[in-house]
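Notes from the 1:1 (GR / supervisor)

We went over the backlog. Supervisor wanted to see one worked example end to end before approving the batch request, so GR pasted a single chain during the call. The sequence is below; no edits were made to it. Supervisor asked that the structure be written out right there so they could see what the output format looks like.
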Amino acid sequence: MGLGDALDGRVFHVKLPGQDAMARRADEHVVPTRVLLPRRVVDRPLRQVAKRLAMALTVLAVTVFIVWADRSGYHDNADGKVDFLDAVYYATVTLSTTGYGDIVPYSDPARLINVVLVTPLRVLFLIILVGTTLEVLTERTREDFRLNRWRTNLREHTVVVGFGTKGRSAIQTLCATGLKKDQIVIVDPAGKVIEAANAEGFVGVLGDATRSDVLLRAEVQKARQIIIATQRDDTAVLVALTARQLNRGAKIVAAVREEENAPLLRQSGADAVITSASAAGRLLGLSVLSPSAGTVMEDLIQQGSGLDLVERPVIKAEVGKSVRETDDLVVSVLRGHRLMGYDDPAASPLQLTDRVITIVRASPTHVPQANHLPQSNQRSWKDGGSQA
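Structure output shown during the call:
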């Protein structure tokens, strides 16, 4: 089924900017789909081997000392006595469970020591020898447990498709507003990109996001918001179609290169579409006309520093007032699905169900609340956030 069939039978042509590295890698080979959790810090393989070797030698040395100290209780079938070399030999064949029987403990104390001390050391030695296999099995079990626990606890998270420049910038903004890293899942077809995401503490899903099974591994059906930051516009359209089919209620925000592709992406299910090339061009033009205005705009789109654009609900104390009577600098009012400017006569007076977009001084105490504050907790916003 093509894109034209998917969108109400109408045929659309997506303008392509050309091949990009992400899509090219996905087309060249089939990407195995899997979820990669951030790895815990472990020792290097050579260091692990060295540690196990040191532990094995320590166990061997302890066993040799025990046998040598009680050598009078042992009998050598060859010459009847046990010297240091015989003690080393006996310890070696005993710990390795070979047991030739040419050197045996015959006194009661020697046999008791073998039962109480040498046998536990033999078991410990075997555990060290097969430690690599045990560790692999344990690690796999532990990873499966972590993955199952992650799937069970994951709710209302954010899925980011594409971990390039746009995806990283979007994640930085989300983290600046208080979103935790464990609430972000990154989807990308490049293994090295997912490794980089894991190194920064994010969960990654390796695979092509245009496929529903890949998005399901990212638990997109339980996500609250989806960010599409691919490098190709046609890829973004397919991802939006698939994501909207799997999750009807999530907020989907996508970026496109060509402005003429924005309507197609909106019809594919995206709630908001950002034209990256045009937005950068407009910012360049504004900076030419007024460098200070360009600096202010750049500051506004960088959350967590300087000035921030914040959307919040109207509190009870502001109901019935005009836009200019609020403590914060209101630039727009969202009433239902209608967005009104601060100078729109219909924006005033403010209503309890309105949401306002304000400019505030960045503060770590209120920025996270601004984007996620529920309607039932409006008073706490006023008490803690309007003082910034």
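Supervisor's comment: The longest helix spans residues 45-69.
Batch request approved.
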